[in-house]
């Protein structure tokens, strides 16, 4: 568990613009930016950043009723060093220690254009990860991207930004 806040789009246009350049993705495809704080012994159990479907979470893409739309990219940035604890651990033994400015990028869902129709919008199980218990405070910002522009009003409503 952690404390977090989703920031309204108009409060972080510069940050989202930089992330858009890094990810080669228009910012219109982004959810509101989330900032999270983990205090001593707080963690985030094993999870997947892709969600079951756009309609279940209220993130419909503009002009799309495709049931296979899903998050296709995650980028989170450590906002400070954590000397002890708080590592991000992926499957296959990959463990990343928090270092200020380090960006972690992964692709939780298959694109709608993937050749195998069964995989369109499906979760990529290789990206299951967890945040191990913090010893020192840990701060991150997280950005998720979708394969098409989001309905920003709906995204703001569903994230509480």
From TrEMBL:
- A Pfam cross-reference name: 2OG-FeII_Oxy_3
Domain Prolyl 4-hydroxylase alpha subunit Fe(2+) 2OG dioxygenase, first and last residues per copy: 34-144
- At the top level, the lineage of the source is Eukaryota
Keywords recorded for this protein, A-Z: Iron, Metal-binding
**GO CC, one annotated term:** endoplasmic reticulum
Task: Select a single GO molecular function from the record's annotations and give it.
Answer: metal ion binding
Q: Which InterPro entries match?
A: P4HA-like (IPR045054), Pro_4_hyd_alph_FE2OG_OXY (IPR044862)
Q: This chain belongs to which protein, by name?
A: Prolyl 4-hydroxylase alpha subunit Fe(2+) 2OG dioxygenase domain-containing protein
Q: Which organism is it from?
A: Alexandrium andersonii
